[in-house]
Amino acid sequence: MIAKKSAPSWKQWVFPCLVGVILLAYPWVLGTVYTNIFIYFAIFSVFAASLNMLVSYLGVLSFGHALFYGGGAYATALFLDHIEGLGLFTVILIGGAAGAALGLIVSPLLNRVKATAFALLTLALGQLAYMACLKLRFITYGEDGVGGFPIPDLTLPGIASINMMTAENFYYLAVVVLSLCLLLMWFLTKTPFGSIMIGIRDNPDRVDFLGFNLPMTKAIVFVISGFFAGIAGAVYALFQNLVTPDGAFHIMTSFTPIMMLFVGGIGTFAGPIVGSGVMTIIEELATRYTTQIALFNGILLVLVVMYFRTGFVGLYLLIREKLFQKESS
Amino acid sequence: MAEKKLFFNLCLTLSLMAALVLLPHGGFAQEVNSSFNPSEMSDMSDFDPNNFQQPEGDTIKLGYMQIMSGAAASNGELFWPIVTWAAHDINKRGGILVDGKKKKIEIVTGDTQGKPEAAKKETERLCLEEKVDVLWGTSGSHLAKVIADVAKKYKVPFMNCLALSDELMDEKNFNRYTFRTLSNTTQWNMAMAYYFSKRPETRFSILCQDYMYGHSMAGAFKKHLKKLKPEVEFVSEDYHQLWLKDFAPYLTKIMATNPEVLYTADWLPDGDNLAKQVRNMGLELPIANIYITLRETLKALGVDGTENLINGYCFMSGDTPQTEAQAKLMKAWHEQWKTWKAPYDSDTYAWPEVVLGSTLNDTYWLFDVIKRAGSTDPEKIIEVWEGDVFQSIQGIRTMRADDHQAVYDMYISDYTYPTKEVYPGALYSEGFAGPGEIITVPQKYCTPPVPEGLKGRAE
Predict the structure, then answer these.
(1) pLDDT digit string, tens, across residues A303-313
(2) Which of A92, A251, B44, B49 has the most CB atoms at less than 10 Å from its CB?
């Protein structure tokens, strides 16, 4: 006899509802500056979460994830710069498609290497994109980047056309698109495909013996991860109305989500989101008092690596466990 | 009949005399709206850039947008004594009367980090959170463009006194909240081309930074020099990444092409690093430049390394202050500089010259405009600044109403050694060359027309 699942109590809805209300009210309560900061945080959450798919679920460390993020950003900016009349969601999907296409293109190369070689190859590919972007001035406008392209309104046929140039309107778009991305990524980790990913991370030979096509599975993960990084890049391009080689492909653009992963906690889905939040807050606070922001980030990373390698999420779980044990005893 | 002829001859002679007197001053007499007079400067003996006293209460907030961190942080440091000097002076005079109240100048810093994304974020913070009244900046045309866009969005006047690219103020990018007090790439290169058209060299190498400004400068130089001197040959043309450390591959190529002049528009830190490496590699050819003027760099290059520098700028003082006002400012600054602590005790800050002089001049112009507007209301500032004619310490500056581009005479100098005393007991430089004879290129030879789409805009 199967026990009937009890109906969710109203208490389970309190937290999501509270988050929803906070997200709705956020731009009106905190103003444009903090709204923009939140958009940065949301973009980097998705970017870091897409990297997390490789690091935490596939067990490979990419030093060049900006390749997909920058690819998505540039694709969006260039399409808007050259083609009139593109819709908002179309260009976001174009960004995602560019990231996915790049994932597909590099997957045969990435499938050939493991561990350190994988990290170095991704680093090389990221830097290749960076240099190409600087040198192909006739396409990318070099160091100046692609800027000033038209930002399409959000058109709801027959209902309204919403201007996306205001921070508040853009905030809601970014929150919806990026939340959807996070939900999809989370859902993927809960599917049988997600289990195969974890299987590859823990014991690739065993997954191979079980009859799964290892290179194909990895290629699919690269494509999916590239797609979400591309979406993050597309939202970034729309938000900034400017895409430059430094912002899109620079080595620090690849290292930032890695730091976010470490700070938030590798091996968990929430890690990159928490890491993005912590680093955004630190950066914002540090900017007000010093120009040495990198120093603060560096100190934080050293502290995390030395004293709590599971990151903030791990620390939270540890504290919760201790408290729970206390209550039980 | 004879009387009529005599009268005609007299009139002609008088006209020619008037023209001869007026032309060197940039054309026909312009009615000056206001001026910067160093005699009115307050006692600056308590000024210290390391310890700028920010006023409290209701102030006029100036957003100092510069590169304060990263590889090009020296730019942020360089102009800090300039804005603080002018602000300190105005504050000691009691401030500026705006909206019926005397307000002092407060400076809020925005760090562009040399990156467009950071420039956008910081400009937004300054406009929305700090609520600055005006924006001041900035090194890097790609950064200035971002700042100008944000300034337009939030309707905050932006004085661009450092970014030169023509594109910043063309039909596509012009916005009525941005005013460029510095010459643009065409002005500078028309002057430089005019100068080189009179010199014997015909083989030029170009090495500039690989972005909007570098390409804009090189393009304008080639175009205008070719027009004036068709036989000229550009034997190499290269563009390097910003903040480059090693120029050897480019210089090796340049050496192979055997040029007579190296043209570069590089700014800090690239310009200085390039000049050092050029001389270290044994290239002794003249370097036509705009920003290789920092005295620390010139000192490192020594007499031999600096004698072949040809510098062009809209403000030049050097060892021969051209006016009494200039000399007075030079003395007040230099005497005070002797009391400053690191990093401002370095030779770089010894004199308010070239880019330091021009930005100081422009900062006073900005404050003067606010004073005359009697308000920090952007519309009132725009009204006063459009078409304004300002007597600076180095000639008259006119802000064209249609495209918000300042026009004026340009100056070029071939660096020579030894240099003279600026005033008794104060040698201009020891151990390196400086501006010798300063050649004035009147604005009629170096003023580009207003972009077609902006003509008559302000009418």
Answers:
(1) 998 988 889 99
(2) A92
Which residue is listed with tokens 């980047």? Answer: A145
Check residue B427 and give its pLDDT: 85
Q: E strand or H helix at A129, and its extent?
A: helix A115-135
Q: Which residues contact A320 (CB under 8 A, 6 or more apart)?
A: none
Peptide bond into A245 cis (omega under 30): no
Tell me if chain A has a CB within 8 Å of the CB of B240. Answer: no
B212–A144 CB contact, under 8 Å: yes
DSSP string spanning B128-151? Answer: IIS--SEEEE-S-HHHHHHHHHHH
C-alpha B149/C-alpha B127 separation (Å) is 12
Residues of chain B whose pLDDT is less than 70? 1-30, 319-320
What is the predicted pLDDT for the residue at A11?
77
- What range defines the domain where residue B46 resides? 34-184+356-407
> Residue B311 belongs to what H/E stretch?
strand B309-313
What percent of chain A is modeled with pLDDT above 90?
Answer: 69
Measured between beta carbons, the chain A residues lying within 8 angstroms of B119 are none
Report how far residue A57's alpha carbon sits from residue A69's, in angstroms, rounded to the nearest whole number: 19
Domain boundaries along the sequence of chain A:
30-263
Confirm whether B286 is domain-assigned: no
Q: What is the pLDDT of residue A160?
A: 84
| Alpha carbon distance B270, B209 (integer Å) | 8
Chain A residues touching B141 at Cβ < 8 A? 144
Classify B114 as helix, strand or coil. Answer: coil
pLDDT tens string A56-78: 999 999 999 999 999 999 999 99
Q: What is the dihedral of CA A166, A168, A173, A177, to 10 degrees?
A: 130
B213 in a structural domain: no
Q: Which residues of B touch A293 (CB under 8 A)?
A: 69
pLDDT score, position B108: 96
- Domain CATH for B395: 3.40.50.2300
In a domain? residue B252: no
Tell me the pLDDT of chain A averaged across its residues: 91
| Angle, vertex CA A120, rays to CA A115 and CA A122, nearest 5 | 95
Condensed to tens digits (0 to 9), the pLDDT of residues A211-229 reads: 999 999 999 999 999 999 9
| The pLDDT of residue B28 | 46
Whether B21 and chain A come into contact, CB under 8 Å, resolves to no
Region A269-289: what's the mean pLDDT?
Answer: 89
Long-range contacts, stretch B333-342, CB < 8 angstroms, 24+ apart: B333/B44, B333/B85, B334/B422, B334/B426, B336/B44, B336/B45, B336/B47, B339/B48, B340/B48, B340/B49, B340/B50, B340/B81, B341/B48, B341/B50
Return the structure tokens found at A61. Answer: 């460390």
Contact between A142 and B128 using a beta-carbon 8 Å cutoff: no
**pTM over the 0.90 mark:** no
Q: What is the pLDDT of residues A139-156, one digit of tens each?
A: 998 888 898 899 999 988
Of A270 and B421, the structure prediction assigns the larger pLDDT to A270
Asked, for residue B164, whether it belongs to a domain, the answer is: yes
**Total number of domains in chain B:** 1
Q: Which member of A36, A134, A142 has the closest CB to residue B121?
A: A36
Burial of B20 (0-12, 13-18, 19+ CB in 10 A): exposed
